[in-house]
Amino acid sequence: MAEVSALELSVADCLLVQIEAWDGTFEQFQSDLSRTFGIALPATVGETVRQPSLRAIKVAPRRFWLLYDTSGGPSVEVDPDLGALTHLGEGRIRVRLCGDRLPGVLAGCIAVDWRSQAVAPGKAIQTSFHGVPVLFVRTGEAECELIVPRSFSRSILDWLKDSAGGVELEGSDNSGMHPKF
Amino acid sequence: MNSRNKRLPSGGRIDRARPVDFTFDGKKLCGFHGDTLASALLANDVALVGRSFKYHRPRGIFSAGPEEPNALVTLGTGGRREPNLPATTLELADGMAAESQNRWPSLGFDIQSVNGLFAPFLSAGFYYKTFMGPTRRAWMFYEHFIRRAAGLGRAGVDADPDQYEVRHAFCDVAVIGGGPAGLSAARAAATAGARVALIEQDFLFGGQLLSKRTDGGAAAWLATIEAELRGFENVTMMARTTAFGVYDGGVLGLVGQQGNVDPDRAGSPRQVFTMLRACSIVFAAGAIERPLVFPDNDRPGVMLASAARAYLNRFAVLPGKRVVVAITNDSAWRAAFDLAVAGAEVTVADLRPVPASYLLAEAARLGVSVRTGARIARIRGAHRVNAVTLAGPKTQADIACDLVCVSGGWSPTVHLTSHLGVRPIYRGDIDGFIPGALPASQFVAGSIAGQYATAEAVEAGHRAGVEAASFCGKSKPARAPAKLDLRDTVSTPFRDPGSAGRGKAFVDFQMDVTVADIALAHREGYESVEHLKRYTTLGMGTDQGKTSNFSALAAMAALCDATIPETGVTAFRPPYTPVAIGALAGRAVGHHFKPFRRTPMHDWHQANGAEMLEVGLWMRPWFYRNSGRDVNEAYVAEMRMVREAAGLMDISTLGKIDVQGPDAAIFLDRVYANGFAKLPVGRARYGVMLRDDGIVFDDGTTTRLSENSFFMTTSTAKAADVLSRLEFLLDTAWPELRVAVTSVSDEWAAMSIAGPKSRDLLSAALPGIDVSNEALPHMSLLESAWQGKSLRILRLSYSGERAYEVYVGASAGERLWTHLLAAGEPLGLKPYGVEALGALRVEKGHVAGPEIDGRTTLDDLGLGRMAGKRTGFVGDVLRRRPAFQAADRHRLVGLECVEEGQRLRGGAILFKLGEAIQGHGHGRITSVTYSPTLGKYIGLGLFAGDLAIEGTEVLAAYPMKKEQVRARIVSPVFLDPEGKRLRG
């Protein structure tokens, strides 16, 4: 990762699976996931649950994103009578940022209050970045990730680089490559 | 202090060790760090600084704040040129080059000041009455000259080279106003534990305290509390920052000035627009002094009393040596006393018959002469006041002077509190409007609430700060600040009824609105304040009538014999002060103007000669330069390639939606006009969605992946709208359906291989996959994998040729694209762009955006049979309304040009042959292309159904180019109507 003036920024492919429960089936849906795949789900929208190889994020009342750290994590299946599963691992990229300058740089990008409990470490928020919907995940005191639609990612990264004063991007430790758009 | 320099030898809050050079209308002048442009001009004895809007009357500096109506200047040159800036708010900086405005050839000699002679013809609404004829179009002629004659500064036309920035910020308590009430509120809220943002438009905190002597108690109190606030880690002090708007959800619009000429700001933004989200807000915005209305009250040298005091005590400028202070209240006496102490010869003309005795005693002590019950009847001097005539109850006297200070009381600055629709309420005891009933999260303190006494403002600020913090859940005990009693008194309201006499008595200085204009509006029936405002342009200048509002209300109330509350008040809307467009845009200029979407093959397109086209937010290949010299040559060549061999098209921009669930088929049956429930697994179907009103919404294909899973595609343009629509229907209309819809537009790279050789090259490129007609017939799906990525091949055709849509995981898109091109090269495969794609679909008669334009129905587009007699889908009921069945509704037709060497144009209006070319005709051409297959221009159009008989000739008129060409109505399907090519 490149370090420029206390801001590190890297990009990686985004291993992401969306799962969703039908209305009225959530209890069994959750129980199945926990029993069969060992995945615990967060209770409220914006909450995340960190697990050995993934982070589960509640992005809507019955909808969750499973954000895998690396490929080869536990695969998930969903009983169609209980809910749906959609692979979203190709359509987004994962922008990781950390450093002391992060709150200041992000203030020029997204409306997220770095000091709010709503975005305390471990919390996630869907927000708008230059008019583009992104998922903001606070991963640490001075760390976060942005899950960005792939088609918009170059525009977003350009904006981010300019806001940060010309930080150069490096590819991820996962893929070792620059994201292709 | 010499005769040309009004700077006092000591005092003020300027830094005399840091002189500042600047120019005004090219003349070199000098001020000090800590000056405003206005104070520096006054110090240099510059009295005339501008010309008025309509009459081009000479104007001087009137105030010391953002309410300034007169002293507007232009700063900068080229792209940095910015007009209409109040000199009273511009922090003086080295190299500042200010220009006066609205004058020619010079400020001192302005030709258009002749307008004053024609004043009787230039009254309110004169152009509504005067420029009515002789024809209806005459206004278009007059408008040009009126616009050239009117106006203030002129904006530049060059691109602004400076940077601006938009930022998001958050706090518990936002305090607007850094005067005694605001400082006290911020301190209380911070002590209570709240995160505080203290917002002050000035470059110094203190508000009216800055106008007090720097060696007094006010200055000491200010220094103490400011130091205390700076010591809080939870306080952000935002000087040079104006809160210009209040919006829902506790959002404040702030614009911060970096400084107009600041050598230290290289690389940093010139202005920062901050969207501050606050849990609670304390409004401590103060009050604005009202002027008095009397003949020629706009002459340079007439100034608000509070401004004179500010220039004297804050900037160490004695704005006049012989001063007449014309007032109706106690507060302005303080200005008179300070001016007298500074050495001016002062006469107070108090309209009240009996001012307070302690004021009279102090006046006597300081040698200030006093005339009670007196008002100004006349002003002498053109470019600078040199005398006034004071009219008393019984006597009249001429007094020589070089400065006239006026004060008609105070108007609380209620603008921001009104932005969310809270109407101000009138308080008789202060004869002014204060904020109305605010939401629970908003508080007021100080002069804005009519608490004019400093001690009262400080206490009220403390209370407001505590309450605002408590609203945010912060309630640590906060001790009160040190008392600050300046013994400023609140006088009994005494409204000046105005005076008659020769000369214009201005109510709105900036818009040149006089008492006579208001009287005229009243006579003509414009009695509502909102009508008055629009008829006279009162309050519509850059100052938004900050000094004129109350005077105008009072004048209209008097004319209507009504009270002020009965007369009402105009609505205050954002922005409080003008905001540069650049600040609102921030970084969103140039390549950041909007975010672009790039397909997975974007880089390849650019590297291989694609001319890119913006389609919505997407960047798409328009045509490839190696296909032809320009788009017209290229698209025809690319069409031929597709018709004769094969072409590869990037269609990743199509909207793609994953539809899943046990009720997915039922759901699709309801959202599409044609049925989907019986669609077999592995098959695709073209579908059309209607809006509730029966108009076509969008079209696309949906493929059944499994019993409960579908893959929907939408048009590029409507992708987001369709997803929103589906989510809306699931959430509101049919929440019982177990269906999940998810956009997968970014998941898949998509490419279309079209042409007679498409199957061969696909077989060559993907040898392990059977794409024969038996394995993959038209409108069917094949799922596989390629290099570990999911692969979908859909046999669909938009061009009318045998064609396949190939979908692969986005990260592998470019690899598969180049692989297909390499494999297809021996067969002549090349890429083609959207221009050729659009032309191919016209030949095939497929409708697209130009036809699905929000006005057409299924029947209009010839798709009525898709729905047949089905019911129960969105738009089903209203599509059958009688108006949609009218025989003359415009229906889809094909058109071919019948004149040799001529062409059709999209947008041309269609008329019957021999018909007069006027009006809207009987239809229009929606899409046009040159057809290399047919060797002529062809098009699709919408034409009156009762006239749309195939074989009929019509006239296509294109008035923009004065073209008229004959065309024949034909079937919209120009090519292969049986569909042999696409099914073969």
From TrEMBL, chain A:
InterPro entries xref list: TrmE/GcvT-like
Name the UniProt record assigns to this protein: Sarcosine oxidase subunit gamma
Domain of life: Bacteria
Species, as recorded: Allomesorhizobium camelthorni
SUPFAM superfamilies xref list: Folate-binding domain (SSF103025)
Automatic annotation (TrEMBL), chain B:
Matches recorded under InterPro entries: 2Fe-2S-bd_N (IPR042204), BFD-like_2Fe2S-bd_dom_sf (IPR041854), FAD/NAD-bd_sf (IPR036188), FAD/NAD-binding_dom (IPR023753), GcvT/YgfZ/DmdA (IPR028896), GcvT/YgfZ_C (IPR029043), GcvT_C (IPR013977), GCVT_N (IPR006222)
SUPFAM superfamilies: Aminomethyltransferase beta-barrel domain (SSF101790), FAD/NAD(P)-binding domain (SSF51905), Folate-binding domain (SSF103025)
Pfam families: Fer2_4 (PF13510), GCV_T (PF01571), GCV_T_C (PF08669), Pyr_redox_2 (PF07992), SO_alpha_A3 (PF17806)
Residue span, Aminomethyltransferase C-terminal domain: 891-976
GO biological process assignments: tetrahydrofolate metabolic process
SoxA A3 domain: residues covered: 503-587
GO MF term (any one): sarcosine oxidase activity
A GO-annotated cellular component: cytosol
Domain FAD/NAD(P)-binding: 172-423
Keywords, comma-separated and alphabetical: Oxidoreductase
Signal peptide: none
Residues of the GCVT N-terminal domain: 601-867
Family per record: Belongs to the GcvT family.
Matching NCBIfam families: soxA
UniProt name for this protein: Sarcosine oxidase subunit alpha family protein
Species assigned in the record: Allomesorhizobium camelthorni
